[in-house]
């Protein structure tokens, strides 16, 4: 794959399909890479890999539980990258982690390791816009797209800066708070999606609380697609196998495609 993350997603969007990015916590279970394959086979446009951290402050109980399980199993950044190097999927892989892991050696070394491992994007949700410069420069030097988060509470000026500085896509939060499943789509999310779409041609994807296929389709109607995390990890933690997770992603893919018609 020679396209950058952003080029790949823009090309996929250009076919008229809403974008779908499912998530898995790396190391959460033996053979977790089979989940990545199942997602790709089910119609994912990219896959987000959570690099587990002991204090994931923006994640709800489900992702925290998945991270705890992965850490207890001995998961490390080095180990994740070794397993990622064995993956053969035709969609980009995006790392999601926290600043502490990024700076354990240096931001430059971390970004270089991700790129060498085959990852195309990076999300660091606890790295605020005002402090993201060094990380953005290190990522850009490695051809790694640093995805920034946009919150419903942000001013229009801040949203404009986020949209301009983000790479790959803009990660729009459906609500304030932590990740997790929710039963309804707040009106503030719809407003945020419309505003960001008016500020950039870069893909805008909703995350945090995308809980089922119908909700994913509704949110995608206000943006370019969705990131689905907690709903999938809850199924995995409850015993779902890669094939079952792939089937659920396929059901989201169908809902997104039907909603776009």
Automatic annotation (TrEMBL):
Its EC number is 4.2.1.20. Pathway: Amino-acid biosynthesis; L-tryptophan biosynthesis; L-tryptophan from chorismate: step 5/5. Pfam families: Trp_syntA. InterPro entries: Aldolase_TIM, RibuloseP-bd_barrel, Trp_synthase_alpha_AS, Trp_synthase_suA. The alpha subunit is responsible for the aldol cleavage of indoleglycerol phosphate to indole and glyceraldehyde 3-phosphate. GO terms for cellular component: cytosol. This is Tryptophan synthase alpha chain. Tetramer of two alpha and two beta chains. The active site is at 48 (proton acceptor), 59 (proton acceptor). Gene3D superfamilies: Aldolase class I (3.20.20.70).
């Amino acid at each position: 794959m020679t396209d950058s993350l952003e080029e790949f997603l823009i090309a996929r969007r250009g076919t008229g399909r809403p974008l779908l990015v499912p998530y898995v916590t790396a190391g959460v279970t033996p053979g977790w890479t089979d989940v990545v394959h199942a997602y790709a086979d089910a119609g994912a446009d990219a896959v987000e890999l959570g690099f587990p951290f002991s204090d994931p402050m923006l994640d709800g109980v489900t992702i925290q539980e998945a991270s705890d399980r992965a850490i207890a199993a001995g998961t490390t950044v080095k180990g994740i990258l070794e397993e990622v190097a064995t993956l053969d999927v035709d969609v980009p892989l995006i790392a999601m982690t926290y600043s502490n892991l990024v700076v354990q050696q240096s931001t430059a070394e971390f970004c270089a390791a991700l790129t060498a491992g085959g990852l195309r994007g990076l999300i660091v949700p606890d790295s605020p816009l005002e402090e993201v410069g060094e990380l953005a420069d290190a990522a850009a030097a490695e051809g790694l797209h640093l995805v920034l988060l946009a919150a419903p509470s942000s001013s229009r000026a801040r949203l404009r800066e986020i949209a301009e500085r983000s790479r790959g896509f803009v990660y729009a939060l459906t609500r304030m708070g932590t990740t997790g499943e929710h039963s309804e789509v707040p009106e503030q999310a719809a407003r945020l999606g419309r505003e960001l779409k008016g500020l950039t041609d870069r893909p805008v994807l909703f995350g945090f609380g995308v809980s089922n296929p119908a909700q994913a389709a509704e949110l995608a109607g206000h943006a370019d697609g969705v990131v689905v995390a907690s709903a999938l990890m809850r199924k995995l933690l409850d015993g779902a196998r890669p094939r079952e997770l792939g089937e659920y992603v396929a059901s989201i893919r169908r809902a997104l495609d039907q909603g776009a018609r």
